[in-house]
Structure formats: structure tokens, C-alpha cells
Amino acid sequence: MRVLFFKTLLALAMAGLLASPVYAADAGIRVEQAWARASIGTSRPAAAFVTVINTSNHAVTLTGLTSSVAGMVEVHETVKDGTIMKMAPAGPIEIPAGGRLEMEPGGYHIMLMALKRAVKKGETLTLALHFSDGTEIKAAATVMGPGALGPTK
Known about the structure:
The chain has one helix at residues 2-14, and strands spanning 22-24, 29-37, 46-54, 60-66, 70-81, 84-89, 93-95, 100-102, 108-115, 124-131, 136-144.
């Protein structure tokens, strides 16, 4: 019974469900649910997803991201062009006071491009989110399989 408990606890920790949100108290910004999809080698990009919560009383702008695994990191948005779904760079994204930005498959997402190495299922990678006021928040993203739909799927 104890072994099952500890295996379950380990699985939840690896899925990021026990991870505390990363919080920049002075800026009123919190990052939760950081996860990523594994890449198919290094020639194809990987994707990552986070939720950014702005608890302050003023808007904040996400201006960029960095990660040690990628030479280029951008927020993209999936948009519909007629009957075709396309991805396009989103540029800076303003998060209103008391608002949130949920990155998820089929919407806003982080593209990890120019990979320096393959991103593998089961590892944890670090994402650094940069905001217009100079705040930087680092979040640990658990890497799921290439077709994962969420941090536990």
C-alpha cells in the first residue's frame, strides 16, 4: 500500500500537479500549469503551455520568453483563415488587471524553435517569461508526449 501511495505521489509530481505556481509577488503575476510537448528530434519545434494570472490592479504585457533548449522562443496563436487553421506569431500580449492568459492546444501556445537538443517526454524544462515592466518569471514545464492535450493527458 505504501509503495502504491509513493508511486502515485511521484506520478502526480512529474505531471506538475503538485508543483506550486511560480509567483512574482511584487509584480502581481502568477504562472501555473506549465507543461510542454516532446519534440520529434531537433528539426521540428516543440510546444509549451502555461497559464499566466495577473492579480495586480494594472495590465501587464508578456513581451517574450526564453529557454535553454531553444534558440528561438515565441508565443504563437492558432487562427482560422477561411477553412484552414494556421499558426502565427502573437507578439506582445497584454493581460488586463485581474485577468489571465491561458495557453492551450488550439489557441495561444509557446513555440520552442531552433532546438539545441531534442525535448524528451518525462524531462522538465525551464521557461523564462519576460514582461514589459522588467519582471522575469521562470517556470518548470513537465514534458509530456508529442500529442499530449494537457499536463495529465
